Amino acid sequence: RMIEALAEKKVVGVSAGDDHTAVWTEVGELFTFGSSFGDGGYGKLGHGGQENEFVPRLVETLVGKKVVGASASDYHTAAWTDEGELFTFGQGQFGKLGHGGAQNELVPKLVEVLAGKKMVGASAGTEHTAVWTEEGELFTFGDGGYGKLGHGGHQTELVPRLVGALAGKKVIGASAGGSHTAVWTEEGELFTFGWGG
Known about the structure:
By secondary structure, this protein is mostly beta strands.
């Protein structure tokens, strides 16, 4: 069934999280809807509160930015712009928002550690996030359990950290899951790390 609230918009992308959805349009507007609180989501819709939204609602904090992609997960959302800025919002547990702490963010907040880098993609996992740059660098942050951040250990990272093991490779995509991460490169190589169960 077509979503009437978006009938006059040209949708170019969508990401379905556990119980919320993020949609972006050709002109760079970001709309979210679904559960804001959902099992600890804490503002993952980005509207400044914890109310559920039953129809797509414009994320007003990002008006004036051109959103070109978003990733909706169980508890948080990541969005990036044509200028390469990364914004995250929702539950901050384990540092998966990348702001240096574990606080929740009810509206999109710029990940300042990545200023100066042009982010071209992000994948929000259950408790961690993977992002990559135009140059092909991969950064991960959040819960490091099972080694799913790719840094050789299990420690939590509160801000984005470069995955050194992929130095010299040009990462063009990643998918962060619940307990592992998969990454692919320009040459068509696939790398996986995390829980091997």
